[in-house]
Amino acid sequence: MKRSAVAAAVVVALAAVVFLLAAARPGQGAVTCADVDADLRPCVGYVTGKEAAPPAECCAGVKSIRAMPSGTAERRLACECVKQAAARYKGLDTDAIRDLPAACGSQLPFPLRLDFDCSTYVYNRALYIYWVRENLTVLMWIYATISEELLDLVLRQSVMAFGVWSHIQSIFSGNKPSRVVHLEAELYGLCQGDLTIVAYCHKLQSLATAFADTF
Description:
The protein has 215 residues and is mainly α. It contains eleven helices and no strands. The two termini are 30 Å apart.
């Protein structure tokens, strides 16, 4: 990886830490269900399967909810408000709801699951700081192990390791037909040549694994 790419990855990762730690600080003002409802209304198309990705207004709303007061009681209320807002809509995609924070690059302090008991949420700053550190570790590992071309595509997609990984997955999932054609051509053209039998078998195993990943 080129030095410029490494520098950009480090800057983004540090920005992620700053953003996530800032989100852990107590916010100002009271939480209201009206505010939560207004924040999530632009997300309806995405969580009902009508839109392939959450629009900018939706992600802005998710980040707004994240910036709400960080006390246990306030976040329990915000959690209940989210569930109440969701109950007003039919045909919700539970997977899209669960993945919404990651898709927006702004993880919420409580899981977005309609069956989640909001009363069980307890804010633990020490645990959150630990999670921030672990998220950074995984994020840097992803940045360090993918190609520079792929890094350019995902570098500023999310400050969440899960969000970056999901974006990488979507890139390859959306490219399956052409990838299969490429792998077939490589398999048909493969010959041992100067390769040892071990290296040749290893190459066949790599192609078999790549084929399995397309299904």
